[in-house]
Structure of Class I SAM-dependent methyltransferase:
Amino acid sequence: MKVTEEEIRPEVVFNEYLKLTAEDTITYFSNAVKVEIDCPSCEGKGNDWVTKYGFNYKLCPDCKTIYVSPRPEMVSFNAYYKDAPSTKFWATTFYRVTEKARREKLWKPKAQMVKDTILSLENSNKFKYIIDIGGGYGVFDEEIKTIMDIDAIVIEPSVHLAEICRNKGLAVVEKFMEEIVFGDLPNGRKCFVSFELFEHLHDPNFFLQTVFQNMNSDDVFVFTTLSGMGIDIQLLGENSKALSPPHHLNFFNPKSVTNLLLKNGFKVISALTPGKLDMDIISKNIEFIDDPYWRNLITYLDEEEMNLVQDKIVELGLSSHMMVTCFKP
Ligand SMILES: [Zn+2]
């Protein structure tokens, strides 16, 4: 089944969300204290790449990670996520309009993907828990429980979202992952998951340390995030909708995320980009592409050829949506 961008990000609603976000970046971040940071993967010195809504993105010349620097301090993000108009719009209007399509097109395939990943591991019958970090509305957890005999625990700091999960009969730990200590989670083999969270993290190294500390040997962590080597992000630059401050602060790629995980003690099983939308996105945004070769190519190829290019992009790990599987040795 072909997934189009329109179904999961309807343009009119998404554009309203982007408009509110642009306003919020001024309200919450224009006077924020900002700190210069090095590449969060290899600690190299990044070069300025693009600036959007007052946020400066750097690109690391060594590992190609894209990251916001100087980076506003955590306190500004806390205020923003607590009560900004765009945050509220996302959690209410945007979510309501897209829930059905997202459940079918995003969450069911993700549940299947995590199930397949678990079943491909040794002693997969020993997995007792899914730990869903930043589980939001708990849709993933509802879906995986319908296709697998496994318990799900949602880690969700938002009072409003935690309540929604509890009303669905899901177990919830109402904290940020970074506040979880050993003992907050039950014993038994666990598969930690997080979806579209990693690009938001203020300090990815600290986040990974906390996850690692709460894992036992042979526990697994599966997460999805955006890849900065994604072809749409690279070609569209500041016009890429994925480049959305203040939300998206880190764009690792399959190689740089592997480096980051190894540095934090994990062993990496795979870092893949199973995306489907890249060519759809660049075709729709052709006016923003500066490179004449790519503009010509997109209009020259027919639909079937575009699908072949998309397949090749996926094969080479060059799609903008990345899925990473790693474990604690
Ligand atoms: Zn780097």
Observations:
- The longest helix spans residues 85-119.
- The mean pLDDT is 93.
